Amino acid sequence: MKNNFKAVMIDLDGTLLTDDKKITDFSNQILQKLYDNGIKIIIATGRGLSRAKQLTEKLDFDKIILANNGAIIHSSSNIATDEDLMLESNVVDELSTLSKEYGIRPYFFVENKCALLIQDEEDKNRFVDSVGDIGEIMTVSERNLPIDDCVSMIMIAGKDHIYDIVDLIKTNPNVTYHIHTKYFSKNIRMLEVQNVNTDKYKRAIHVLEHFGIKSDEVVAIGDAHNDLEMIVNSGLGVAMKNSDDILKQNADIITQYTNEEDGLAKFLEELFELRDYE
């Protein structure tokens, strides 16, 4: 390996995973080879921890997982990390009231679970149909909101309602938010609200400091707008061929192949010259 990169930061959906949420044998082999040669592997995902662990179970080495866009840090390494980043309880309460005014049922990621504010299976199934399998799900009532340990609050609705809510919360200094459009129809948006300090890149750099690794020694690879900070600020920012346009416009390199074509693994194999390195 003839470059100076010491860590690889990888998004899950649309990057490491195929569209049917699998890690190919080739991707597994390439990441294992990198790990065996001292490269730190960081999985940086918007998914909750329980589902992220399930999806990466095939990677049989000591990986670091940044779940919920970095709000939760998980590693089997004996390293010190910041506490999980929770939404302030008053923010959860205010957003719950606001969503109710717009007729939207909010969803809550609580630690490594997703708590759905529902009273029937129909709404639960509607959420899973929209977002996919997210792992363990629990239900709560409006009288039992998870206001003290909520890492992420999600609302799915028509784009007009979502942008109205964004206008009301964007001046709040205690929150950050993402509007997801991938996997939804053109008139539907998913709004995700989190603690203002939640950021894949910043949380990853905090972890890598324990290994003496600097940002310019990191390769970051993603496909969506919540990967933008890590793409822009890492030593090498890589957008998948199937990425959002904004990521492609800000990346140093765009992969030649998509996530369905082992684009991540083929890129890393070439970057680290793994065919010639034994």
Automatic annotation (TrEMBL):
SUPFAM superfamilies: HAD-like. The keyword Secreted does not apply. It comes from the Bacteria. The keyword Hydrolase applies. This is Cof-type HAD-IIB family hydrolase. InterPro entries: Cof, HAD-like_sf, HAD-SF_hydro_IIB, HAD_sf. Keywords: Hydrolase. It comes from Finegoldia magna. GO terms for cellular component: cytosol. Pfam families: Hydrolase_3. One of its GO terms (molecular function) is phosphatase activity.
